[in-house]
Amino acid sequence: DKQPDTCPRGASQTINALDENGEPFTALVKKLVEKKVALTSTLTVFETFTPGRPLPPGLDVLLPELKQQFEAGHRRTSQNQTSIYRTLFPKALALERAFARAGGMLIAGTDPTGGGGVVPGFSNQRQLELLVEAGFTPLEAIRIGTLNGATYLGRDGRVGSIAAGKQADLIVVNGNPAAAIGDVRRVETVFKQGVGFDPAKLIASVSGRVGLW
Q: Can you give the C-alpha Rg of the chain in angstroms?
């Protein structure tokens, strides 16, 4: 449950490269775009390493001992006044924004790892909120989290957006995430291959059990 609060090898060079007002930052973004490199945003992982950030969503579905373990690690992280991630996290937000603005392909992948607080499903919603925090509009964040991934995988003709003839994997939201990205959490129905599911019942069925091997 130990969080990487200390400065990792090469972190000072990374910080310099991520200075959005400096030449290394601009050169890095330009090179990534020119080489047609796709970046996968995993902000949900790095947020759990960063002091001052809120507890991630979805912890109640974890096994009680895993939840307690993560919460203890989160408290330690919050008390670390010298953590390198205080500097790295906002710079990572800036890098992703600049990369996409320059024409780069940014996709979302929450990569459930780190100290155990990146919970599948809940972290996908959190990822969109963090993209908006980085400076994207809600609609841009939704596109990064849906259609961009399908496009990168060459599957955008079948999934990734709502259109006639596409696979009917949808969520019905009680709100308008295009205006308030937090509404993406207000899911009323989940459709998988045309079959509707109650998200509250799905979550209740695994509550307190996620992480069980």
A: 18
